[in-house]
Amino acid sequence: HAVMIEAVENHMPEVIVIDEIGAEAEALAARTIAERGVQLIATAHGNSLENLLQNPTLSDLVGGIHAVTLSDEEARRRATQKTVLERKAPPTFDVVVEIQDKDQLAVHREVADVVDRLLRGNAMRPEQRSRNRRGVVEIQESIAETAPILDIGDDGSSKPSKRLRIFPYAVSRGKLQRAIRDLRVPARMVEMLREADLILTLKSQERRQPNRLRDAQVRGVRLAVIKSNTVKQMENFLRTEFDVHDFPEDHEAALRQAEQALDEVRDQGQPVELPPQDRYVRRLQHELIHDAGFDTDSKGRDPYRRVVIFPH
Are strands 39-44 and 15-21 parallel, antiparallel or unpaired? Predict the structure, then answer.
């Protein structure tokens, strides 16, 4: 697990593949890597999502569970007993694929929602994929459907919004997908340049002006440029593009704390621990600190897990 974290710190990979997560240290390392915006793919023994959730060593991969005591009013509102099981933290993996048989898979696309429903006793049937004798893959969609993104008009009415089709050029698809999902903006990535409304690329690529970018601009495709290949830069672009200004004050405060801690590390040359934050805020802090050229790590367990900044 130490080698995996070192790989992220020193080589800045876009994707890490882990074969058979089986130890608690490996599960914690996977969470640390995911928080830094790296696309993570892994296998783990468990057979099903329910089995993973009940495994004390591996349950953190899907958010973990803990017992929560509700107030009398909340227990009555939920029509449950006072002590219930709830998801402890955001899942390390957003999607879980169960290998049920050689030719059959079950796909859980929104793990956080699936786990929450499971703990409330409202289990969802996952998407089923099977390969028949002719080699054709048959797909049975999950019962739960994703609601369309709505755009609130000036008159307060809601209407479906057309999705902006983005072609990422020399930009991490995994990070862009995270940014789109976290901000819930009406955008999607496309595979083909000819399908795009907009190309998102890096400043370094714009300077080089490769033929594909020049040709696309001639055809009238818009070009958007970000400075670096980070989730924070992509979120900043999406906020500007969709006029999103609802960044929570506590998130802003957490990033200001990270900036102040960076000054402290520069001045004193000693590691500094930031206050505990949730997974999403920690990832923003990691991005901010890495952009400043410093190394980070995550320490502790949720809800007390926190970012540590290290000097050069």
Answer: parallel
How many helices and strands in the chain, by DSSP H and E?
Answer: 11, 17
Write the single-letter amino acid at 74: E
pLDDT at 159: 37
CATH code, residues 249-310: 3.30.1370.50
Give the model confidence (pLDDT) of 230-241 as tens digits: 888 898 899 888
Cα–Cα distance measured from residue 72 to residue 222, given in angstroms and rounded to the nearest whole number: 55
User: What predicted TM-score, i.e. pTM, was given to this entire model?
Assistant: 0.47
Mean pLDDT of the chain: 81
Among the CATH numbers 3.30.930.10, 3.40.50.300, 3.40.50.2300, 3.40.190.10, which is that of 162-242?
3.40.50.2300
Mode of pairing for the β-strands spanning 137-140 and 150-152? unpaired
Beta bridge partners of 311: none
